[in-house]
Amino acid sequence: MTRGAFGTQRRLIVNADDFGLSEGVNRAILRTHERGIVTSVSLMIRQPHAASAVAGSRAYPGLSLGLHLDFGEWRFEAGEWKPLYEVVVVDDAAAVAAEARHQIEEFRALVGRYPTHLDSHQHVHLNEPARTVALELSRELSIPLRHFSSEIAYCGDFFGQTKDGVPVPGAIGVDALIAILRRLPVGTTELACHPGECVDDECEGTMYRGEREEEAVTLCDPRVRASCTAEGITLCSFADLAAATQDVQ
User: Which domains does the chain possess?
Assistant: First the structure.
């Protein structure tokens, strides 16, 4: 597919990360698909609520399911990144490759097909050796890899913290999201989001907690969808994009 396939259209994939992290995250993601603008999700196949997430998604056949490669999670504390948990040592190329392929097969076994797209928790795949591993998998499966698709621009602006976990007031409010929509370029853009309901001890220890609930409210606000319409933005999923690619070939 070439960018010219859609002329001067602006197409937007709104992808919710961390599907399967908790029941609260699952509920919020499905709600933001049903009532808001979320079109695709990235599943954390290793998390305890992955099966529940997939079961819930079956009521929404238009929702694309990708894989959120999960090698661990880190918190920024006292000026340094400290592990909340580690699945593998991310500097061990063999371990990363084996774990990534394991997660692909676990995804296929649970969902019944391969993922529509690929990315990773906390963007671990931007660094080696996960980068090479993820690029190889995306080529083998012919699916887009976040940050590395020539056809899909990535936007991570809808996030309520700095890279070091400092809150950014207003960054995930309705006005901020509408501003993001207004400056979308021509072509296809993936906008990442992290909606959730963090109740009781769900999401305990993670850096991103209360912001998830604010994101969920914003993504379902009718002014956001109205802005998409006013801006001439077409909401689509990764599966929609793949189908359109086949149509123009």
Answer: 3-248 (3.20.20.370)
